[in-house]
Amino acid sequence: MCKINLTKAALWCTAISPFLLTACVDDSYDLSKDIDMTITVGGNLGIPGSGTEEFTLEDIMDLDDPDNSILQADATTGDYSLLKSESGDPASIDIEGVKVDAPECEETDELLDFEAPANIGDEVEATVDNATTNFTFEKTDIENVTSISSAAVDGTADLTLRFESTDVNQITLKEGFTVDIEMEGQAEANTIEFVLDESKEPNVHNYYEINGQTIRFIQNQNVSANGILRIPIRFIRIGNFPDGQGMQGQTFSMKVNVIANGTAATTGLAMGNVQATLWTGADVSEFTLTEVTGYFDPNIEDITVDPVTIEDVPDFLNESDNSLDIKNPCIKLALSNNAPIDVNLTGKLVRIKGGTEDLTEPIKIGRENPNDENAIILHKGNGEENEPTVSTYYISREDMGVADDPANHIYYIVEPRIGELIKNIPDEIRMNDITAEALNEEYTIALAEDGGLTTYTVETEYELNAPLQFGPELVINYKDTIDNWHSDLEDISFKKAIVEMEAINGIPLNFNIDATPINVDGEAISDVTVNIVQGNIKPGNKIKGGAGTATESPIMLELISNNGSIENLDGLRITLSANTQGAADAVLNKNMTLQLNNIRIRIEGGVTIDMN
To answer: Could you state, in order of their start, the residue ranges of all structural domains in the chain?
Structure first.
């Protein structure tokens, strides 16, 4: 195929212009020396055979800019691939925090009725029975959290108890007095978890203990008239929401009841029964969800990947009528995600030729259903530091024979249409219409403590890797022009010439030769016919200086004048058609060889030389 390109000087110097190019022909055959007339030499003339050096596919490729070419040879093996990679700008995954304003809490009163003491100064008691006050947390227009099973929270409250009375100056809430904090309607324990807030009162544990959702007094607490008893707590977790609470659409709500029970005591007076009004309430701060276990719908920025541009393609691959039946091209997608949430990605691969998409329909990658075996999932990041997880997908035309490696997030997908991307070399390969959606699964995600955005990053890289190993539908037509013969042949005419050689082929492709004679204007000469007497080069498989076997195929081209004289011949326009008929199932390697041996010419019927 490419032999002609690299050896045309040697071939045609020996075969077509033997009489004039003395560097290639023995002087004994130089008919132009010391002859000053037009002569005709009859009979059949032969030129001794010559040959070329063994050369490699790397020589044949003759890339102008190898570093930027899509055609690359593996540094270790030398195997050729169409290889090009691109990346996209980082895209963000944003999850907005949830910060709830401090609710208003109205105090609730309960009348305490102390009976008259038996003796003045005796302690008298009254029962506090489910004295309840409540407040509601509510936040609307929440965008990214759709459901909450439980959440770590940051919020504080001072539970307050005070009394009013015209009869007594102090009451005592007895040891064993309790304050329960519950969600209204809760059916399960531990819907609200809280601790005593030592930051507000360092010795608070000397007075109270917490058991589940109950604060229990471990010693008597005195409350003076017009004074307030404050129990500081810090909320740490919420969950097990009753119906109608938690997330409802885009609204978060939580109604909290504070329920006091126990015994209140005071000193009896002579006047008999006395009364006091006990007020229960709470001073509550704003409320932030710092970590949520639930379902999410984050804002995912459009994910983009730069087009793969195809540059410096060897001519033999880039002809418009080629059909590159590459056996198993592969698209590698490496997707880095440091968000604590899995993302399902879909997209379309298209090829651009001449500025337009020219596939009948795009090649879909990924699946809308994330449970599909061909779905493409950006697996969530690792750990508290949000280290990114790289999920790698190999999308190939045929099974690559490698098992998935879920532990390392490596997966293999078969998509038979991948070969269409490079069946004929395009100008660009693009990934369009990329969509990304969080999986509808439960995750635990830390949210910004100030209620603002938490931003994560997705990075994408993809690579086209198509080893030059061909299937049965391969059609490669390499076209070249061998010309500039006219300056040597303008004084020579002949009727018939036969060019012969042996092609020693170590390339695993079968080649057929065709040729058309041309004049100095590059136009086909209708008066000269090129007959391909023997034009098939059989496939081989040989590495230069290494293993393998080359085949030897005889080649014979016959140039015949249709009007009795071949004139104005400037060269040949040749076509080498490659296919895989009889070829080994091998990848083209830069060190595979081709050699033309024993190149010779026979001119039949004599030549006429005008030496004047």
So the answer is: 3-79+473-610, 81-93+301-467, 102-285
